[in-house]
Amino acid sequence: MTQTPGPDPGDWRPPPHWQIPGLPCHDCGRRTTADGGLADGLGGREFYVVHDDVWPIGGLDGFLCVECLECRIGRRLVPGDFPDVPANAPNPADSPRLRAAKGR
Ligand SMILES: [Zn+2]
């Protein structure tokens, strides 16, 4: 079995899909950020960071709404899944679902 090295965090650059307005969910296509309007059917923004061991295996390169991530990992997200980084700070634009998952 070969192991693919992960990306070097010191060499990180925004990938091309960050240029797509609304940062659509990889699985359902709903926009995860408002981008000047309302996120599609999510009741708010779902822009967040989770620990590497929570993100779907295979190094998915993109965005997932909370529902699609929970579907992939087969459980609900809990506050411990979210590292203490600025992207996870409480935000009034967050969807109720994301706020509940983060616990903040
Ligand atoms: Zn989705």
Molecular structure report:
There is one protein chain. It is globular and about 30 Å long. It is largely without helices or strands. It has one domain (about 20-104). Helices cover about 15% and strands about 0% of the residues. The chain has two helices and no strands. The relative contact order is 0.19. The model has no long low-confidence stretch (mean pLDDT about 80). The longest helix is centred in the C-terminal third of the chain and has 8 residues, at about 65-75. Bound molecules: zinc ion.
Domain module tally:
1
Helix content: 10-25%
User: Which sheet architecture does the biggest sheet show?
Assistant: none
Which ions and ligands are bound to the chains? zinc ion
Please count the beta strands (DSSP E, at least 2 residues each): 0
Query: If you compute it from the alpha carbons, what radius of gyration comes out, rounded to the nearest whole angstrom?
Result: 14 Å
> Structural class from helices and strands?
little secondary structure
Mean pLDDT across the residues is 82
Into which percentage range does the β-strand content fall? under 5%
The number of distinct helices, counting runs of at least 4 residues, comes to 2
